[in-house]
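Two proteins were folded this term; both appear here.
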Amino acid sequence: MTASLCIVMPVCNEGSTLALRLRALAPLRERGAELVVVDGGSTDGTWATAVALADRVVLAPRGRAAQMNAGARGSTADALLFLHADTQLPAGAELLIARALQAGRAWGRFDVRIDGRHAALRLVERLMNLRSRLTGIATGDQALFVRRTVFESLGGFADIALMEDVELSARLRRVGRPACLQTQVVTSGRRWEKHGVWRTIGLMWCLRAAWFLGVGAPVLARWYGYPGRPAHAAAAVAVMARAPEPGLAKTRLAPALGLRGAARAQRRFTQRTLQTACAAAVGPVTLWCAPDASHRFFRALRRAHAVACDNQCAGDIGARMQQAFAHHFAHATDPLLLTGTDCPLLAPGHLQAAVRALAQHDVVLVPAEDGGYVLIGMRRMVPQVFEGIDWSTPQVMAQTRERLRQSGVSWLEMETLWDVDEPADWWRLQTLLQR
């Protein structure tokens, strides 16, 4: 059945509060709405949380316009609702939207209330709502909604760094006046409180005035301090995976999950890692399989994701990783990223950031809390990093650093993540996803 409403939420590094926001939308999903989360390259727990709590998760270039267009693409819903991650909908929001559209409106927005104690915020929200009624212009904080067919006919949001909501409103206004719903959405006041209420008010009014006077979005983005869109870079990706056989996979989780449960966890972790690698779209993905690529699970993944599969060699994890790097650099000159399947927090944004780091460094690493590492990337072969390492011990990262120093190469360490190896790690993951 086609959803009547598609909620598109652009996010980037919203991990600390995203689960709460997405769980608040569960009743709408139960009533048939589709929830699409569009990640702009997060490097925190955003991706893992969204995968667990949304109907669809999409990776897009950073920037609300590009992200919202990506989320809307392919939808067959009657209406699209563009919702910021820090904005809460009122009860029955989908019914209010449906009534407005059934009354003949092509688009609309809600009144907004800003969550914060500063008295000036009451003035800000009143002026926002009044200005919107008078001008027919809506902002993203007001949860803009639109008929999907109208949105598509206008070509979606303009691909600009700032003022994408104002620009689209101006074009929608030619179709018709917006439905200005008096029911309020509640948006976070963190932007005002972080930078100072009066300073933020002044900046926003200056930006809006400059926009109407013809100043371009790139200039306004620099004034606003918008970080810009990271440059695209390319690399191949190798995923080291073990077949999900009871008694042979994730056995340290068996005290909590049992042998079959641990194998099922291995299956899910492998599927999620492969989805992450493919979503990052940095380059071709190869699944390095143990005991070999003939296992039915790996054959299914190869068909589902159109990835290459190869057999891991015998030996310790160092020998197997060295095999993957040696094989790659014997046939290619682009960088290679290599990761296992034990870190559900690894996101496409991490892979993209790692590739960008390799433009300046020979090696990039994502350390793990247990003293190892989640990911290693190289732009040229550095075999010493796999030699003389006490694998599966807390000394792995420290010994790897020493090998890198001895080799005279430059390297970058990204933010530390954590693997799911022990029952405590498993419960930590469950707590994160239920937050």
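Next, the second protein.
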Amino acid sequence: MNPRPASRPRTRTAALACAALLALGAAGCADPEPELTPLGLDPARVELLEPGGGDKAVIRYRDEGADQAARVTVTRGFTQAVEAPDGTVEADPALPDTTMVLPLQATAAGAGPARSVGVELGEPTGSDERLNEDLATAEGFRLDYDAGGTGLPRNPAAGAPERASDTARAGVETSLRQWLTTPVAFPDDPVGVGAVWRVAGEADDPGMRRALTYRLVGRDGDLVDLEVTAEQTPVEATLDDGEVALSVIEAETRTREGRLRVDLRRPLPVSGAVDFVVTVVYGDPGDDAGPRVIQRTLRAIEYAG
């Protein structure tokens, strides 16, 4: 495993130091840093499809020691409906799409294969204002991961501050998993404008795989402009509700927005969004007139300074 950012002291050491100060009656001891636990995400794979034209070069981050304040907005939604043979549709009660705004402070350490990124969360907010006071207890949430020069996240580990509520911990970790499984990464090979590559791996949705196809539309030194198309497909071809097993009839992903600007001197994209809707239709392949279960999933990540 590559080293974590060197500027972060070990949690256990900080906690012991704090306890010692309290035992001596010292005041003003800061909260110990969260103890990090591996998230258990498998790394995605990068495959170059087209090298592009013109002058070609390997794209690598060169952000060692950089600190970046960024705002990442994570949106998710899910709906399900059943279409009967007569064409009538019975939908589950609609739930509003949920959005979480994550103010992040990202720090890069090391270079090349030894590069890693550490992220600390400011005070998060959500689309349901009634929950924001509880959500704010997750301020100080930590995420560290190895990234190498390509930017592909590996070995992510996260931890919440002791004061964080269970709902705040779960909400932030869910958003971070969605972000980590929508990775921005570059191929090992030299590429030019028009190059196309695919980053494929697991999705944050159980039983799904996610692939992001990137196209290099422009580069000006360290500024890289990308177009992104998302595709999400079921790993399991059946839906079993305990009474009947239905198979995947159709799976489609519609990318509503896919554009990113990356500054190779900073660990996170500086602007842009990846926004897509996945529609999966389940039914009996041998019964064209049978009922259909239609599931729609929304996922979106937006970056801002």
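The first strand starts at residue 37 and ends at 38. Helices lie at 11-23, 132-135, 166-180. These notes refer to the second protein only.
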